[in-house]
Amino acid sequence: MGRANITWCALLLASFAAAGDAADGGGKRRDSHVQNEAGLAVRQPGPHDGEGTSTAYPFFDDAEDFRVVFRKRALHKGATIGLHTNDKDEIYYVLSGRGELTLEGEVSEVGPGDAILTRDGDSHGLRQLGDEDLVILVVFPKRPGDP
């Protein structure tokens, strides 16, 4: 991942974390850590009743009181994230590969460097194109009671 991608991700996570700190009175946690994707890979069907297979990397899923879902997902050849309506704001950031995005009924092609904002109530789906995996980062706020 290039320096610009890392900077973008850090800023995005900082904005979500700041929102979480404001909600809990700003108490500082002491369990910050680094997590590597090597032991995280989970092979899954395409999310939201999508087609094909994907690999998810669910970073920090076990972090106590962490209010952000931060996930890397590789959509393998022919895989999709099924068309669905959001119940929260969500961001996809394309790291590599190509995809066909359907957002509110409009279809466009996306590739490396594209950031996709889908708002609460919007419908969207994503299809991998070509021979290379479509690799994205997915970020959204975790709601109380979410696993």
From TrEMBL:
Alphabetized InterPro entries for the sequence: Cupin_2, GPI/OXD, RmlC-like_jellyroll, RmlC_Cupin_sf
Keywords: Metal-binding, Signal
Signal peptide positions (record): 1-19
Pfam families cross-referenced by the UniProt entry: Cupin_2
Molecular functions (GO terms): metal ion binding
Transmembrane portions of the chain: none
Cupin type-2 domain boundaries: 75-140
Keyword Metal-binding belongs to the record: yes
Tree of life domain: Bacteria
Name recorded for this polypeptide: Cupin domain-containing protein
Organism: Arenimonas terrae
